[in-house]
Amino acid sequence: MFKAILVNKDDQGYHAEVSNLQEAALPEGDVTVKVLYSTLNYKDGLAITGKGPVVRSFPMIPGIDFAGEVIASSSPDYKSGDMVLLNGWGVGEGHWGGLSQLARVKAEWLIPMPKGFTAKQALAIGTAGYTAMLCVMALQKHGLRPSDGEVLVTGAAGGVGSFAITLLSKLGFTVVASTGRISEAEYLKTLGASEIIDRSTLSGPGKPLAKERWAAVLDSVGSHTLANACAQTKSDGAVAACGLAQGMDFPATVAPFILRGITLYGINSVTVPRAKRIAAYEQLSKLVDLKTLDEISHEINLAESIKFAEELMSGKVRGRLIVNVNQ
Question: How many domains does the chain have?
């Protein structure tokens, strides 16, 4: 038997609860993992609360990432005792995920535990930090340099935003943080933000082109915020978009792209090839101060995930929520 958060939809409605399950109930896969830590991400919040149609089959165990120890494997790539990490691949949406004491998945979805990190530290980074790193890598590939000017990070107090500020400032960039929680200004400055702006300056309908300010943008919000960020990006600048906290619409025009030549990079962290995942964690191991992880993350237990999912959807959670699934 093992414990997990189980999401169900039936005649009584949509509900999530801690359930005791038989190992035989696990889905197909060639690697079985004793999960040590998972996290609570935006998608997990949608899955647990039912506020978004991310769950594709019921019942479902949410949890889009996890770290743990292999206890059984029919794959030559992993053996019992190996420490592994998973981010994405539809886990927690179409395949039982990490908010569970056991998980069974395909071997190709896993990577070995990145060097220099414990399981808890790897999940303090989790999908949010890994996604932020993919965004930064896109901006690096674009050729962005600190001397090019300010970089805007939207959704700054969230998991992706917090890591984006940390990574960019460590690389020498001047970071401006946009947030709806101005009370978190000191926290964001501690992470490396040089200036804090209220999200209301970006979240309403704007002009097709606005005054150029940003050398680049890292956006986890979408909708009008992303459209305005593009409209304010300097000529030949770049925008990395990875989220839709405000909405999945994009009420913009082609003006910033054809008149200023800006580039919009869409960041999909779910199905990234294994080699690129490993490269992202190699950079993270060099850039992340392990002490900073304590500032960004907060540990909760499995049962608390349900309560905190509601708070996450209400915008009340700062940074990262690590879930100790065995408590």
Answer: 2
